[in-house]
Design goal:
This protein has 343 residues and is α/β, with parallel strands linked by helices. It is 29% helix and 29% strand. It has helices at 48-54, 123-127, 130-143, 150-153, 166-177, 189-198, 211-216, 232-242, 278-282, 289-302, 319-330; strands at residues 4-13, 23-28, 36-46, 57-66, 71-78, 90-93, 106-110, 114-116, 157-161, 181-186, 202-205, 223-228, 243-251, 270-273, 310-314, 337-341.
Length: 343
């Protein structure tokens, strides 16, 4: 194996229009130890976390910082403590925010956050899945504690704010799979159509300042669960107004301004955050749960219960195409997931 690999990274944190915001590099191929897998990357996808980490700030890196937190590829090396995988396995995963990213020809990743990729998907379609699927699964079933019980869920509903994005696209499918009535927010004809195609039962206007009126027009008085995937503080009063007593709200988006959580007290509402990197960042005792979640996701995909959310594909994986991908994400109009394939 050549000891050098292609990688895309940054030294300075610059606006994406700047040609130096993401650059092509040659770096040493890392060696796996412990529970690490060395994966030959076949495809990656881009998420809002990529643009947030890359966003302008007065920091200069001494070595190229490689981004990328969604990948599919082939295991080409294993550490001495690896027990779940063998060389040659085709895998997919979202990686760790604290480690070098997957925008490189070869990548090290802990086996406890990796699974074998769905057999019915190619590498590009598979790379679109992990980060959003883990986020949706943890948000729905761990934070909101939605039961795996279609009979119980037949009388319950969920509002998914930001239904056409990467996480929303998977969350709608999972919520429908366990029997919830799904209300999603969308605003443009193409996002409305996409959310419906993912399985949403009802669509309300994403930009409305009165979700309650929107729900009343659908003969709905409120919602049992809210999964907020967009601008938590902007949608806060809408969430406070429509959540049912004893309901649960989960958000994945940091706030720009403070929110008044006291407003939830009267209804005894639960609020929680979902951050899918928490397990890998802190190497929690249950870190292997993400391996197990991805195994379940792969099975649901292979059973045609879930479908890939890839909507755009760029090739090859290089700085020019990654800058274009970041631009499209920063436009705020991305539907589904954007994938880059092949070096």
């Amino acid at each position: 194996m050549n000891k050098k690999m292609k990688a895309i990274g940054l030294i300075e944190y610059l606006p994406i229009e700047n040609e130096f915001s993401l650059m092509d590099f040659e770096l040493e191929i890392p060696k796996p130890t412990g529970k690490e897998l060395l994966v030959a990357i076949k495809a990656v996808s881009v998420n809002p976390v990529d643009t947030k980490v890359r966003s302008p700030k007065p920091i200069i890196e001494s070595q190229p910082k490689v981004l990328g937190w969604d990948a599919a590829g082939v295991v080409v090396g294993i550490g001495e403590d690896v027990s779940l995988f063998n060389v040659g396995d085709e895998v997919f995963y979202a990686g760790s925010i604290t480690k070098p990213g997957s925008n490189s020809e070869f990548h090290l990743v802990d086996e406890r956050i990796v699974a074998k990729k769905p057999s019915v998907l190619g590498f590009a379609e598979a790379a679109a899945i992990p980060l959003t699927a883990i986020t949706a699964w943890e948000g729905l079933f761990e934070r909101l504690t939605v039961p795996f019980d279609k009979e119980k869920n037949s009388k319950r509903n969920i509002l998914i704010i930001g239904g056409a994005g990467g996480v929303g696209s998977i969350a709608i499918q999972l919520a429908k799979y366990v029997g919830l009535t799904v209300i999603a927010t969308a605003s443009r004809p193409e996002t409305i159509e996409w959310a419906k195609n993912m399985g949403a039962d009802f669509i309300i206007d994403h930009n409305s300042d009165n979700f309650l009126t929107e729900l009343e027009q659908l003969d709905l008085k409120g919602v049992d669960y809210i999964f907020c995937l967009n601008k938590t503080d902007q949608h806060w009063m809408n969430m406070v107004n429509v959540i049912n007593p004893l309901g649960k709200i989960c958000s994945i988006v940091e706030t720009t301004n403070p929110i008044n959580i006291y407003l939830l007290k009267d209804k005894s509402v639960t609020f929680s955050w979902e951050f899918m990197f928490a397990r890998s960042k802190y190497e929690t005792e249950d870190m292997i749960v993400q391996h197990e979640i991805l195994e379940k996701i792969a099975l649901l995909i292979d059973q045609s219960i879930l479908k890939s959310t890839m909507t755009k594909r760029l090739t090859p994986i290089n700085a020019t195409n990654l800058r274009e991908a970041h631009k499209q994400l920063e436009s705020g109009k991305m539907i589904g997931k954007l994938v880059l394939e092949g070096f």
